[in-house]
Design a protein that fits this description.
Distance between the termini of chain B: 59 Å
Largest sheet of chain A: 9 strands, mixed
Function (chain B): Adaptins are components of the adaptor complexes which link clathrin to receptors in coated vesicles. Clathrin-associated protein complexes are believed to interact with the cytoplasmic tails of membrane proteins, leading to their selection and concentration.
Distance between the termini of chain A: 48 Å
Number of helices of chain B: 35
Largest interface: A-B, 104 and 123 residues
Oligomer: heterodimer
Protein name (chain B): AP complex subunit beta
Organism (chain B): Myxozyma melibiosi
Helix content of chain B: 55-70%
Family (chain B): Belongs to the adaptor complexes large subunit family.
Radius of gyration of chain A: 26 Å
Helix content of chain A: 10-25%
Subcellular location (chain B): Endomembrane system
Amino acid sequence: MASAVFFLDLKGKPLLSRNYRGDVPMSAVDKFPILLLDAEEESSVVPPCFSHEGVNYLYIRHSNLYLLAITKRNSNAAEILLFLHKVVQVLTEYFKVLEEESIRDNFVVIYELLDELMDFGYPQTTETKILQEYITQESHKLEVQVRPPIAVTNAVSWRSEGIRYRKNEVFLDVIESVNLLVSSTGTVLRSEILGSVKLKCYLSGMPELRLGLNDRVMFENSGRSTRGKSIEMEDVKFHQCVRLSRFENDRTISFIPPDGEFELMSYRLNTQVKPLIWVECAVQMHAGSRVEYAIKARAQFKRRSTANNVEIIIPVPDDADTPKFRTTVGTVHYAPEKAAIIWKIKHFGGGKEFAMRAELGLPSVKESDPDRKKRPISVKFEIPYFTTSGIQVRYLKIIESKLQYPSLPWVRYITQSGDDYTVRLP
Amino acid sequence: MSDAKFFAKGKAAELRVELKSDKKDKNFARRKTTLKRIVANMTMNNNEMIQLFPDILECMNVDSLEIKKMCFLYLINYARVKPDLANKALSTLLSDINDRSPLIRALALRTMSCVPLGTYARAIVEPLQDLLRDSDPYVRKTAAFGVAKLWAADPNLVEKSGLIESVNQLLVDSNPTVVSAGLAALSDITDKSDGMKLAIGYQDASKLIKILPDCNEWSQTYILTALMSYTPQDTAEALLMAERLSPRLAHSNASVILGTIRVMIYLTNYISDDSAVDMLVRRFGPPLVTLLSKPYEIQYVALRNCFLILQQYPYILQNNIKVFFCKYNDPIYIKVSKLEIIFLLASEENMPEILRELREYASEIDVQFVRKAVRAIGKLAIKIKGSARACIDTLLDLVATRVSYIVQEATIVIKNIFRKYPNKYESIITVLCKNLDSLDEPEAKAAMIWIIGQYADRIENSDEILDDFLFTFKEETIEVQLALLTATVKLFVQRPAKGQELVLQVLKWATEETDNPDLRDRGYMYWRLLSSSSGNADLTRQIVMGEKPAVTVESDKLDDKTLEELTLNIGSLASIYMRPVNQIFKGTKAKQLEQSPALRRAFSDGPVMTQQMNVTSSAAEDGEDDFADTGYRGPDVFAARGDLLSEA
């Protein structure tokens, strides 16, 4: 529960605000930039919520904006912070981008939305598709609107009735992000797969969908022989359209989807992953003159797959200069602003191995604190038509009993590096 | 089309002319544009706009929703400054509240209940009664929150009007969203009310769980909050409820997950079967871990709450400690929170991987984080006896880096290790003695001096080292001076021949040449001790080298009562600050476990305080002024400073 919500620029100047409860003076926002600055000066640990003189500040940052909520009560912090993220999502879906400029460009609609997104500090409807039905930027549409969409207070709060498509299609993307941490001695310290099933639904009416996966628990429950591969998901999270009790009972994923794009589910596997792209690095430091790197990269997946847009980012000392590279494949460039060299390989075939050597000059005057900043090598890539976990969509059934149209589901798989695919330097 | 152009500073007179112009205004386009300019100026705090109040009142009756919304926004913003003019809008709003469009009814209602004026509050009581029974659920939902708003402004008015009873009726509404809005309103009111309390019986609680899936994600969190007001009467009942709630753990909304965990933990207090509780809490592990891949702010809330939950049930994730290892790009507040959990879950079994990891953190860039990592290693040596040796080896490895702040931090923690395990790991003193030059912080210096004093008889050249430190005695902070004084006396007691000269010198400084009373007191104390018992060296030794209370790290843990209270507040600000609710939030009722035959345990601090009085607090008596700052100043809290890993 929030007393007021603010949009601020990066200097902490309020751009637009809404006071929901009137129990905290709006001037409390003036302290926010000062408190933030003081906190940053005092310590590098500045958390996303803090309290000052009885007022609690909860904030997130998005592009060149702060979104801030204030409250005096022991409010639900998870709810408020999540709501701020939802506001970003809704406004981004409304205006394509959300940044300082978009606040002024759309201030009237933002005021209207703030009135609808939250009441008395309690989040209400945050489904963009539904909001767009009665809060629009084209003002002429607005006049005849007599009642809010039924979805606002309906059990199916994410989809309105009466949607029509000439061609009924569903696109299903299974995206797996692999996070991996390899120690300097070459052992895998941590690995996880974060999966996401995203849908683009262009279906008429109120369709009932059922998604079948090669889920081991379901196979076992239904007594099916585990023919073929099945996977065991450590944890699954569903969009609010999925009937959770049904899933709990018999692992059926059944739902009436929202219209358009959304994330149906996310899942997590903790199984030990064999590194898809393996990187080895030898460093030879000649203090005061130069540093040499010998990098080897190996694609440890099947030959029929290919990793695209591979980037291997190797940190180098801040004060390095005159880079020289030698490689058989791809391109290498030095990015001094990141203090790193970046080796790019457009297509990296399964089973292949490539090498690269780099040499950089170092100033003869040594840094007072010898390279203590140990940053890891990070790797980026994407492998289409491939999932690390082996997850498979067995079926996607679409039933709209009234309209009974034929429909087409399309499925795509892709594996990519997560935000933390790193190898520690020796 | 961009609206940014409206943000030019406008003159009231000019805008008035625009609004009043007789020219044709097709679809009110001109007036819309002018109003946008006015709202833009209002957003920029251009107070000249207040002058336009009468003109806005005229616009309010224009038949355009867009114009109406802007006028209402203006009204809410300036009503307090111009109460007389604001009251003139009442008739428009009261007619809109009966509009045939539910959208306008709700809009008028929301606006009226936002205007901070007594006249508005009084005027809305009657219509609210009807709106709570409106045919449209959207209006009923808005009316429920309207009652809560009105109560916050004027509790007496609401309690006399019978509106609370009407909101109560919403709990049997056929529409789940309306039910949850009613609950949210009642929770909001009872949270602050002295006289009223929300109590939910088994039948109702059961119904609420049934409608959960039919509510949107936020409504679910309101129901989950309200379920904390249900008191199970026996184990089976509580268990059944918990089982029925657990599918919510697969929801994608983090606050639904944390809310579900909160209610389930609450219910375990009424479940006598340990293995059943065990089964329930084990289900929290995977969803908690999944929250660690959400946005950082959400991760942070999850981590702080993990700390609370794991303190009570460490086994949920003890074998999974790797999930709390820091990612290189994590913000520092995340890293520190993870470090605390790693410390909490450490055991002899997982110690090797933890130490490897902490060793790695000690080579990161952020000095504060590095220091916390080093400190954690030292504290682990104290916490887990069997791993002390391994911890010390890691510390020595770090001291060898000769990075000043690492050496200092290590010195501080090693002192505590010596206190915990006297006469055990003395071989490392030699290593420390090699790094004396790195010490420039008082805390580290004092720690090193303590070590020298304590082991003066075993350090070959302890007198020389002390002498070196004494060279700057007068410039040192009091902390270091006190340490030097004590250490020199210890040296003298253990090696009288070597210490005699030094001790005389120090005692002279401490008693004659200082302004600090503490130092002087201690100086005199030693002086008398040494001169009076000169015949009895053993006695002096016993006093000076007396046994000290053992060092523990248990003080890092929250006490049971606080922990229990905080687990009843999972996801809330208090759970992040890790402070009892009353300490930070004025006048908020602390959640307590209600008595019931099924309640497992309660702390013996008398009966639960629920006064059934029907008086409202005096602060709230005069309605509108409740908004004013009451002058209360709570403590400032910056939770993630890693309070739990800093020195007491």
